Protein 1
Amino acid sequence: MRRALAAITAVVLLAMLVAAWRAVPAAVERAMNRVAAGHAYPVSEAAARLHQTLVIADLHDDLLLWDRDPLARGSRGHTDVPRLIEGNVAIQVFSAVTKVPRTMSYEGNAGDSDLVTPLVVLQGWPPRAWRSLTARAIYEAGRLRDAAGRSNGRLTILKSAADLDRFLERRKTNPSVVSGLLAIEGLHALGGEIRNVDVLFGEGYRMMGLAHFFDNEVAGSAHGLVKGGLTPLGRGVVARMEQLGIIVDLAHASPQAMSDTLDIATRPVVVSHTGVQGTCPGPRNLTDDEIRRVAASGGVIGIGFWDGAVCGEGAGAIAKAVRYAADRAGVEHVALGSDFDGATTTPFDAAGMAQITSALLDAHFTEDEIRLIMGENVVRLLRQTLPRGTTP
């Protein structure tokens, strides 16, 4: 009897330890991905009416890093398919995070530490992803594919211009659908191998950010120690991305890497989630010259929602940054880049996107301009840059 009780006690204790172990990622996310203003987002009748007619696109979201089902409405974080649908978001770019340094300083980070590794282990990712950054990106792509496969059509994945046109046609009669586009946050995920551009393209990735919070083998980071430009490998990577139809993302890139890329780019580039120096000084926010050069490429600039991007915690601060960028680049080159689920505090979650429509009306943008900013500029860019035809 004593042995039986001891065995039962051991099993119960082990179960409690496993439950506590698995609870850590949720606690970490609750601490890191916050909503500043609760979950009630009232807007005027005029703003609500206009918002429901928009095709809304957001250029950056890190949901795939976290241990949540994208199809289930969550009680933490910023996005999931139900909240995206409630916010009338049509297109969401989901970015794979594969490594972040311990400090995540805006000023300077080495690449010799990693906060993602313990999160990967705690969340039960496959052992290969514990060691390989490329494997982490492949796993995150698989998470989005799995969610799409279980969604009964509520979530699809964009890989080509034909996919985009088919989705938008379908959405005219069914607004309760979302399409995701896969992106990479930092090409340390290549492991220094240019062939992995093709590997990740095969996994469905159609946008790639050159750097994240530290310098890598491809490009310098705005938050790195050296903050250098494109490396020889990086020049080859950019050329291969353009050949395949992968959009080059300059968010987090150092000023030199950004300039080097714009010097050689033959296709439009994006800065998926950023601020502008004119309303919010900071090492990763764009200067007026950078704003104009991105626009000259035919690209778009995604204005972020967090304090470090817009120096404020409300939709009004976002609209102010949008106005500044539009006055310098033209309204055709400004978009949304929330950085939802990216270890940020935002003024609302995805269900509250009408707050931006309201703030843009208050900032005296016209309805046609709001349509461009809220999503049509991104649609134009995707139609122009994604591979043609239907992809498997």
Protein 2
Amino acid sequence: MGDLIVRIESLSRMWIASVLARGEQPEAEAWRRLRDWAAAKGLWGDFVTHPVYGFNNPSPASGSEEYGYELWIRIDGPEAGDGAVKFKEFEGGLFAVTACKLRGDPDVAKTWRLLWDWAQAGPYLWRRTQELEKVLNPEAAEDELILELYLPVESARNAPSAPKTS
């Protein structure tokens, strides 16, 4: 797959705080909400202990300019909901991971396609759970943001076998 560098990573089960924004470009609003909440809690800035993940929710649909963007930050444990911030437990699991710049060539969409193709050609199968985009440097300027793309996978040998037909 050319210059695509992929590693397999297991994410542990974790508690997350989640914010969701909707609109024609909801990412900035989601970032503002998460940053404000996490900074007030003293979580913003330690992105090793409290990594930030994002994804479209819902994804853009044909014929509509609006979609949703959800951001998560890892927290130490469950908390009571406070309206705009929801608290969830993420099950974790195995992921194929590669990195790309938010504004680069290849772009994020193309890098997702390359990662998907990599997984289909190798010893892993896509696992039905949330794909994630981990922001490595949340304080960077938009044109310098680096994302790690997390495609949920499972080993092909652990995948359920296809049903037998007669």
